[in-house]
Amino acid sequence: MLGHKDSSFRSSSATPSPPSSSAPSPAPIRRRDPRYAAVRRKVCFDAPSRTADKGRSDGVEIGRDERTTGIAGEDIPKSALKKKQDYGITDIECEPWVQCDRCDAWQHQICSLFNERKNKAKQSEYICPTCLLDGIGNGEQLLSQTTVIGAKDLPTTRLSDHVEEWLAQHLNKERQERARSLGKSFDEVPGAEDLFVRVVSSVKKTVEVKQLFRKNFQEQDYSSEFPYKSKAILLFQKIEGADVCLFAMYVQEFGSECPQPNTRRVSISYIDSVKYFRPDIKAASGESLRTFVYHHVLLGYLSYCKMCGFTSCYIWVCPPLKRDDYILYCHPEIQKMPKLDKLRQWYHAMIHKAKEEKIVVGCSNLYDDFFLPTKECNAKITATRLPYFDNDYWPEEAEVILQKFENESTTNRQKSSTRRALKAAKRDTTQATPGDQNDVLLMHELGQLIRPVKENFIMIHLQHFCSQCCEPILSGKDRHPIDSEEHSFYMVEVGKVPSNTDDKDRTMASDIFETRMAFLNFCQANHYEFGTLRRAKHSSLMVLYLLHTSKCNVCSSTIEPAEGFHCQTCPAYNVCDSCHQKEGVAPHDHRLILRSTICRFLSQSRLMKQKLHLLNMAKKLNLMLQKIEESE
């Protein structure tokens, strides 16, 4: 509800009206620290100030007796102080304000969805919602005609299109089932609308093998690094006219070109969400519709991975500690963080759906797949077979264990325990090298750590694995037992798995989304919180604005959304209007097009996809009707 025109603009980062009393030279209260507020006074201070020493520069002193606290020369009874604690910077008295240029009323910038970054020059006019409504009633055109660019206008990828289409199809099916169970028509039951899935970061990275692990296994041609593609995926929903980021996910994709043991493996590193999804109702299955949607975002992603030729997906189930954030900064107080067992159940419920959808062929855990010897598997039990993911549990623990081995001399190490470990691993105790000994002992100690909590390290199999060599079956025919009956097999034709896992999606670099910590730190530094719906709206607005803006490759100035020029061949090359107009200033080998043209093209292409989808549905319906008529 903002109007931007070329005019003078006034904003304030402090509370301008009404004036409030405060201690002189107040020190900032740290986030989440307890604070005390004086009843009927606009004064608050932190816990240490309540028992402050004399001579403090912020005006907080000990009162005339122990029952009072002195604030700027006034004694306030401690009984009149109310203890408060904010989850994030949510005190509305500390928020920045903006003044209407028509009625001079002050509004919170967050409530007004005001974009302070866009108004660096202080030359835009702000019109409050009341004046806008009055103007519309009088027939005035107060809002500018510029296109509002939101989540749906972000660039799409094959992955985002696949997940979004998957989600839409299953939501439509769920709504039909819910309507049928309630005895109502499709339109009579509420459904989830205005959902947009976007990949906001897709960059090539490398996880380097830690020093001691690399040193111990260098003779086995173990790779020193594993290349992968890191992706950040967001789910937005338009709520009350504003885009809100509801769900975020970071994944690691190790492709077909990556060395073993990471070849064709995927890791879901982090997921996070905030509880604002609409409508807040139960799905036909009995679970919340919110859970249904988040599960199907993951199912759509796993379906895409299977289609691209990935063979397995790894999930380390590890909920955040209380008050900690993984991706989104601050969560609603009413949103309960799941305990470990609940989160594990949540993932397994998703995996059960994936099996029903024929996406997943099996599910196990890291310990059973790589630590536990079986009669059928001929593969060697060794640390070099463990998938090596970035920021994972076992590589960190392995480095600690190997450091302990280095600190111990060979003579001090218990030979009997070494022999027992080698024998258990079916290694020749007489010809075992120091490297073999370290490998066996490392797997033994890692196994002791992982075995009690093995259910937290989920291995999802997207393709069948050979029971003999434990390698994925990528082509040909697969034979496996029926209902675990010994030596009873039936044949399964393995679908054609792509020889290359590259999905041809372009690289999408984003400074703020490069890692989950980069985004979290960015939100913390700018107070972009998701703890309340109004803050989530404003934070999402600012994130979308930054995703739509670019830096000029010539003068480094900020290019606003739908402004400037862009190279379709070089995705990272953008030029502002000023540099483009100056002859010879911005030479480039490829043709540059208007960024506004890209926005229009994206909108038109989405409409075209919708039309094609409707045409395909109509063709299928006509074919079905023809078959029915022929049968009659």
Characterization of this structure:
The chain has 632 residues and is α+β, with helices and mostly antiparallel strands. Among the domains are: 158-381 and 456-481, no CATH class; 549-632, no CATH class. It has helices at 47-50, 129-137, 158-182, 211-216, 289-308, 340-356, 366-370, 393-407, 415-424, 434-450, 516-526, 533-548, 577-581, 595-631; strands at residues 11-12, 35-38, 44-46, 60-62, 68-71, 74-77, 81-84, 97-99, 106-108, 195-208, 225-239, 242-254, 265-273, 312-316, 362-365, 457-461, 477-481, 489-493, 550-551, 558-559, 565-567, 574-575, 592-594. Helix 5 links the parallel strand 13 (265-273) and strand 14. The protein is globular.
Question: How would you describe this structure in keywords?
Answer:
single chain, 632 residues, alpha+beta, 23 strands, globular, Znf_ZZ, histone acetyltransferase activity, nucleus, EC 2.3.1.48
